[in-house]
Amino acid sequence: MKSWFRDAVTGEGQWSLDEVRYRSPAGNLLEVVHDLEPLREQGPAGLKALWDQRWGPRSAHPFHSGIWGKKELVLPDIPDEHVVTLDEGHTSLLPLGRYAEDLGCDGQQLLLKQCGNSHSGSFKDLGMTVLVSQVNHLIRSGKQEFLGVACASSGDTSAALAAYCAAAGIPAVVLLPDAKVSPAQLVQPLANNALTLALDTDFDGCMRLVRQLTEDGKLYLANSMNSLRIEGQKTVAIEIIQQLGWEIPDWIFISGGNLGNTAALYKGLEELMELRVITRMPKIVCCQAAAADPLFQCYQRGWKDFQAVTAQPTQASAIRIGDPVSVPKALKGLMRHDGEVEHASESELAEACARADRCGFFACPHTGVTLAALEKYIARGRIGANQRAVVISTAHGLKFTQVKHDYHSSNLDGVTPQQPNRPQRLAATIEAIYDAVQRHHHG
Question: Rounded to whole angstroms, how far apart are CA atoms 316 and 398?
Fold first, then answer.
């Protein structure tokens, strides 16, 4: 057995990945452990060469995927033919250019990792390909039978689960908080034929229900308390460093809701450290919306007495989570490696989105949270002139067009837009158009 589950808090226990298990007997979340000794024998240069050689669409199945190109660190035991991939990963790492320069920084030193440029439009694809592949393996090998795979979602998880289950021919069941996800996010599971249930509760309520629903094992749980998803999500850390020519950024900013992504970043980086592929850890800043910021409040108390909160409405709906499932894993990484937490108000995240959009990006509200945090760190002098910072964008802005429309129409609750751009209604004449162009040029 090259990989197994163990208790993520105590490090104890050893359970097969083929078991349907989400927690240890002590009630703690699990983590996947890999036998790294064969990889250590290849050495850092050998691993880099292997992973670089697989990069790109010409690689054989499943290695053309950015996730499965690192199969040794993801699910090494699964047969290649059981892998369900939609060519996720390999997302762009773009210089922030004019946006960074407007903040007084080098436009090449601040970078945006576009995880939303993926099959279903968010980073959730990175973990879902792993989870659905394992379910597909259990079914096709005759080891388990399921009625389907179920998740609670604030939007993006349901889209990814529905897409990958549809590709594999496995039923998907989605629990969503009614009227609390964007129309674009709602239509994705509908289009992929998932059983989509809009419930009269918030995400935390959906999460409680799906945990009860999957207790008997007839439905497989797809939320981030399932540690298999972390194995895909952690590859974004490896991919960033690979795209930088195996150089290590000084900072990584990532939004935090259920906190699986923060835990995943640390897991990927720690494994690279164990394999000597990297020699130091970047500083990670977990960024929360002020409307749902229990981790930030805990950080302000010196990491003492984490308390769940009732999440309030926020543009960043996917991280509107007051009782995050993965807080023990995230806290372990943040505290071990001197990580930090920041938050952003609704106005701060909206204006950060608008500034980035004016420089050629189309940032989702969750990316707005991370950009607003980046702006605060720059203003405080925390990021040095020669330091490289990466902001992880978790979803495509096209999922949140209503938020952008409301911003530019001055209809966004609690926000007075500083950079609105409204369509101008004009007479259909050359003179009127030219006059508008002149005003725009000077204005």
Answer: 13
> Does residue 441 surpass a pLDDT of 90?
no
Average pLDDT along the chain: 95
Mapping DSSP onto H, E and C, the string for the chain reads CCEEEEECCCCCCCECCCCCCCECCCCCEEEEEECCHHHHHHHHHHHHHHHHHHCCCCCCCCCCCCCHHHHHHCCCCCCHHHCCCCCCCCCCEEECHHHHHHCCCCCCCEEEEECCCCCCCECHHHHHHHHHHHHHHHHHCCCCCCCEEEEECCCHHHHHHHHHHHHHCCCEEEEEECCCCCHHHHHHHHHCCCEEEEECCCHHHHHHHHHHHCCCCCEEECCCCCCHHHHHHCHHHHHHHHHCCCCCCCEEEEECCCCHHHHHHHHHHHHHHHCCCCCCCCEEEEEEEHHHCHHHHHHHCCCCCCCCCCCCCCCCHHHCCCCCCCHHHHHHHHHHCCCEEEEECHHHHHHHHHHHHCCCCCECHHHHHHHHHHHHHHHCCCCCCCCCEEEEECEEHHHHHHHHHHHHCCCCCCCCCCCCCCCCCCCCCHHHHHHHHHHHHHC
What span, in angstroms and rounded, lies between the C-alpha atoms of 318 and 256? 9
- Spatial separation of the C-alpha atoms in residues 351 and 239, rounded to whole Å: 29
Q: What is the pLDDT of residues 212-245, one digit of tens each?
A: 999 999 999 998 889 999 999 999 999 999 999 9
How distant, in Å, are the alpha carbons of 8, 163, 200, 429 from that of 188?
33, 8, 20, 41
Residue 107 burial class via C-beta count within 10 angstroms: exposed 0-12, middle 13-18, buried 19 and up: middle
Q: Which residue has the tokens 């981790």?
A: 295
Q: Per-domain residue ranges for the chain?
A: 93-120+236-408
Confidence of residue 1 (pLDDT cuts 50, 70, 90): low
283, amino acid identity? K
- The CATH architecture of the domain made up of 93-120+236-408 is 3-Layer(aba) Sandwich (3.40)
